[in-house]
Amino acid sequence: MLRRMIIPALFGLVGTAMLVALGLWQLDRADQKAALIAELETRIFDSPVDLPQQLDPDQHRYLPVEVEGRFLPQHVFVLSAQKAAGPGFHLVQAFETAEGRRILVERGYLPESARAGLSIPSDDTTRLAGNLHWPRDINQHTPDYDAGRNLLFGRDVAEMASLLDTEEVHLVLRAAQPSDPAITPVPVYDVTIPDPHLGYAVQWFLMAVAWVGMTVFFLWRIRTQRD
């Protein structure tokens, strides 16, 4: 009987060890992600720097920058809502820097009632401060761009850059000189990076518990059949 139980016992032991190891690995990944998020949240409020020539979304995400230049006429509205103000839009507009680069600037929130009377300045020199961001709020269920209303239903930097003929560089405005009282900036205050690793770790540990339970049950069946 003992010989019949050796292989199932070893199988159960090895399987449990592997599942526990995977759970521990996910806990380590969760710690790494928490450290990254803490670093990025600290970066958000650093002193702004000039816009780097070469940009990497992983390296420069949430980097505070200052740019000077002028807004261009090209713009798009992104469907949004604010708790206190209700439905409205985020205005994303093309911006030409003093060095001649064309980037995206998310100027802020605009109530639905104010859209019709909005003027789009494109000549005055403006100095902007904000954070670089590469949001992607869309999925397979997000409606396509509504050309008739010049409306997007979620932010995707590649799509917005294509629409407005800019680099895939997205600046979320914090402050502007001069500012526009009709538009309320919605600056970056925290990091929005999904962190599923803790949930994965719990799943692996639950699977390990189930594996132990099945192994014990199987060994018990072997023993009772022998008896």
UniProtKB/TrEMBL annotation:
Localization of this protein: Cell membrane; Membrane
A Pfam family annotated for this UniProt entry: SURF1
Main location: membrane
A cellular component annotation (GO) from this entry: plasma membrane
UniProt KW keywords: Cell membrane, Membrane, Transmembrane, Transmembrane helix
Membrane topology: Multi-pass membrane protein
Bilayer-spanning residue ranges: 201-220
Statement: the UniProt record of this protein carries the keyword Cell membrane: yes
Similarity-based family: Belongs to the SURF1 family.
PANTHER family per the UniProt record, alphabetical: SURFEIT LOCUS PROTEIN (PTHR23427), SURFEIT LOCUS PROTEIN 1 (PTHR23427:SF2)
Protein name: SURF1-like protein
Native species: Roseinatronobacter monicus
